[in-house]
Design brief:
Blueprint: H1 2-20, E1 24-31, E2 34-40, H2 49-55, E3 64-71, H3 86-102, H4 125-129
Antiparallel strand pairs: 1-2, 1-3
């Protein structure tokens, strides 16, 4: 359960980073006050009224309008180790070294009698020998 949660959280974080760096343009075509078409990554389809306005010499005021909305992504995700000053580089390298050596495993202890079972006790030896701890 814990591994599945960590896996799904890492996928979610990767998707968030991907979409935060993603930039796109939304193109909208309005005829008067009404939205006719909205398109992402391409040009919006027109209603055909802009061609009629150009051919008609009486109407000077066009009723159609195009609107572009650009959504810029984040460009500041790259952090270089060389952009830090000497004190920051020293701290990062020392912290990394100490962190990775913190989780160094202990040497495996060898137990020579782990495969042997203890002997069966038939009687209580302390009672038979009359030896008691005071």
């Amino acid at each position: 359960m814990k591994k599945a949660f960590q896996y799904s959280l890492s996928i979610l974080m990767a998707v968030v980073v991907l979409f935060s760096t993603f930039s796109f343009t939304v193109d909208s075509h309005y005829c008067g006050k009404f939205l006719v078409d909205k398109a992402v990554f391409s040009k919006a389809k027109t209603c055909g009224m802009d061609l009629a306005v150009k051919s008609d010499s009486f109407s000077e005021d066009p009723c159609c309008s195009n609107q572009k909305t650009a959504v810029e992504g984040q460009d500041e995700l790259k952090i270089s180790f060389h952009s830090f000053d000497l004190d920051q580089q020293l701290f990062i390298s020392t912290f990394t070294f100490a962190y990775f050596n913190l989780f160094e495993g202990l040497p495996q202890q060898i137990v020579p009698f782990k495969d042997y079972s203890p002997p069966l006790l038939v009687t209580d030896i302390q009672l038979v020998d009359q030896v008691f701890l005071i």
